[in-house]
Amino acid sequence: MTERIVLAYSGGLDTSVAIPWIKERTGRDVIAFAVDVGQAGEDLEQIRQRALDCGAVEAVVLDARDEYADDYLIPALKANALYQRRYPLVSALSRPLIARHLARVARELGANSIAHGCTGMGNDQVRFEAAVAAVAPELESIAPIRDLSLTRDVAIEYAEANKLPIRQSKSSPYSVDQNMWGRAVETGFLEDPWNAPIEDLYEYTQDPTIQRDPTEITIAFEAGVPVAIDGERMSMRQIVEKLNDLAGKHGVGRLDMVEDRLVGIKSREIYEAPAAIALIEAHTQLEDLVLERDVHRYKREVEVEWSNLVYDGLWFGGLKVALDSFIDHTQEKVTGEVRMTLHQGRAVVTGRRSDQSLYDYSLATYDTGNTFNQDAARGFIELHSLPSKIAARRDKPQL
């Protein structure tokens, strides 16, 4: 029986080229495995057929949209996950889900290897292989695009010569990755960070400079999880899909950034993530209302580390799992409503309320009736600054 390899198949250039390339170079049969994580505009049946047309002996597709939303996007939202304070981990969040099912399918079909279409310059090679190593360490990982140093122009020529059914061409060389949490675009003229992005790059968002009336929404959260929009209860997946539509119409969530890749290089990326950016902003501001100061401060530090770990492909790593426990504990009181205005590329919170609020009007007001004991402030400042005062006596600072 011919040995088999299960390939994580996206339907794009690299994974389409990988199918015949693996067959030619190794003699193994390729089973394509595609996962639906909410790739707007992509039909999984068409992707399945494309894999067969490219030479796969079998193509397996899985609808994992609800699993992705519940088991990956909710933890990311609880962590307010933004790599370099901006990028909502669009691709990084889907990779551990895909890798886990990739390993499962390989075991079920008797394959001893998995493959992916990542290059040696990107982050996803690490994410796939580290995740597979964590859940199925006996499986071998193969990366034909990376291991053969197959550049994008050569891959396009190979696809055209072999009449592979792909959309990329020399006149449209962008690399696109997308799921319900957002969309990433790179390569082509974008590789020069001075070149401004053009409107044709975007699909999830409309031009934010076009004049439209603002849209006001109210998002309800329970224990850190969004559960309703304007009083209508929905699943996490439905909320993300709804906000991609509502916020996308106002151009919310467009990002143009140079990011530090795990492999040590800088990369220019264009992202659009309307639901992710709107939800993270709403969730963050509800936390401002309900988390006590020290927990609030420390969680913001944890969020950075959590985002770095997920970006670096360590979803199943011990530290990330431990941080999940801390984050889940902080979410117990994150219940309430956030009012938000979507307009001209921005998602602006205009109100927040919660039965768990730590905001005390009688303490915060500057008007008559204030209950804050201002007499206590003098002694507090004296003790708070005492270490600095003692050190200054010793060091005699020059003014």
TrEMBL record:
Family according to the record: Belongs to the argininosuccinate synthase family. Type 1 subfamily.
Residue ranges of domain Arginosuccinate synthase C-terminal in the record: 174-390
Documented EC number(s): 6.3.4.5
Quaternary structure, from the entry: Homotetramer.
Name of the featured protein: Argininosuccinate synthase
Matches recorded under InterPro entries: Arginosuc_syn_C (IPR048268), Arginosuc_syn_N (IPR048267), Arginosuc_synth (IPR001518), Arginosuc_synth_CS (IPR018223), Arginosuc_synth_type_1_subfam (IPR023434), AS_cat/multimer_dom_body (IPR024074), Rossmann-like_a/b/a_fold (IPR014729)
Catalysed reactions, as listed in the record: L-citrulline + L-aspartate + ATP = 2-(N(omega)-L-arginino)succinate + AMP + diphosphate + H(+)
List of residues binding L-aspartate: T119, N123, D124
Keywords of the record: Amino-acid biosynthesis, Arginine biosynthesis, ATP-binding, Cytoplasm, Ligase, Nucleotide-binding
Pathway(s) per entry: Amino-acid biosynthesis; L-arginine biosynthesis; L-arginine from L-ornithine and carbamoyl phosphate: step 2/3
Organism: Gulosibacter bifidus
GO molecular-function terms, A-Z: argininosuccinate synthase activity
PROSITE patterns attached to this UniProt entry: ARGININOSUCCIN_SYN_1, ARGININOSUCCIN_SYN_2
Compartments where found: Cytoplasm
Binding site for L-citrulline: Y87, N123, R127, S175, E259, Y271
